[in-house]
Amino acid sequence: MIGFRMSQIKVEQFAILCDTQPDGEIGFNTSLSFGFNPIKSEIIVTTKYELMQTDKKMVILELSCLFEIRKEDWDSLKNDNKITFPKDFLAHLAMHTVGTARGVLFSKTEGTVFNQYILPPINVASKILEDITINVSAE
Q1: Which of 51, 55, 66, 70 is deepest in the core (most CB within 10 A)?
Q2: SS3 annotation, the chain
Q3: How far is CA 59 from CA 26, 37, 53, 107, 120, in A?
């Protein structure tokens, strides 16, 4: 098991673009990305959500969570000048990030018509199809 701790949560972007009650179905656009800092043994997971009605964006939330990886575990993933992160581990970090985003969205929309819209469950494991390998030769 790879040891880690979430060390930072950052709301990169938040906006309510409409103040009226939506009429009809609301859709969600989502994205997920990873960044790596080999010098500090860190992984950053960023997720973005857009609540939409038809083509009209109503709410935008982009959030990043920074995870510090235990140094000895980070080092154990190294092979030559590369580190390979298992997809299951990345999905685990993404799941923490999505849960954090769900709470932030709920908190930031409190007192608005959008508070009733909770991010649906997202199977992040189905979005991360393979391990990710990065070069660390400049470390």
Answers
A1: 51
A2: CCCEEEEEEEEEEEEECCCCCCCCCCEEEEEEEEEEECCCCEEEEEEEEEEEECCEEEEEEEEEEEEEECHHHHHHCEECCEEEECHHHHHHHHHHHHHHHHHHHHHHCCCCHHHHCCCCCCCHHHCCCCCEEEECCCC
A3: 11, 30, 10, 13, 15
- Residues sharing a CB contact under 8 Å with residue 46, sequence separation 6 or more, in sequence order: 12, 32, 33, 34, 35, 62, 63, 64, 97
d(CA 7, CA 4): 9
Question: Given a cut of 90, is residue 47 above it in pLDDT?
Answer: yes
Q: Which residues pair with 47 in a beta bridge?
A: 32, 63
Domain residue limits at 121:
4-135
Task: Indicate whether 139 pLDDT > 60.
Answer: no
Domain count, the chain: 1
* Confidence (pTM): 0.91
